[in-house]
Amino acid sequence: MGIIAWISGVMLLAGFGGSGVMKVMDHPMMVESRNHLGIAKQQFQGLGALEAAGGIGVILGLASNGESYEWIGPLAGLGLLIVGIGAVLAHRKAGDETKDAVPAAVLSVVAIIYIITVIAR
């Protein structure tokens, strides 16, 4: 696997995985975000679990090294891309400033880079 795939994969694990764990654990910063966006607690925590699982899936796909489960990585990357786009749209719907959606937009771009580098190898 290429270095760009690994760097983008680790970035996805750190960004989405960290955010996901904070959502699942109901961190005060995430409670504030959840309330602001108008998302139910169970849905927000479920989204957090998907983010954390996606981050792990990205790394598992990279670590598979030609094994039969290497397909997990690109699918996890695609799932995280969808989550990132959804986050950008949620911020726009809530009337947030553009700067509030930048982390999700950047992670979406990283997900695209990851998917391309993993598929193109």
Descriptive account of the structure:
The longest helix has 23 residues, at 41-63. Helices cover 82% and strands 0% of the residues. The chain has 5 helices and no strands. It is mainly alpha-helical. The protein has one domain (3-119).
Helix content: over 70%
Low-pLDDT stretches:
none
**What are the secondary-structure elements, in order, as H or E?**
HHHHH
Terminal Cα span: 7 Å
Number of domains: 1
Please compute the radius of gyration using only Cα atoms. 14 Å
Biggest sheet layout: none
Number of strands: 0
Helices, by number, come to: 5
Overall 3D form: globular
Average pLDDT over all residues: 94
Share in β-strands: under 5%
Class by SSE composition: mainly alpha
Map the helices and strands:
Elements: H1 3-24, H2 28-37, H3 41-63, H4 72-93, H5 98-119
Features:
mainly alpha; 82% helix; 5 helices; 121 residues
Describe what is shown at a glance.
The protein has about 120 residues and is mostly helical. It has helices spanning about 5-25, 30-35, 40-65, 70-95, 100-120.
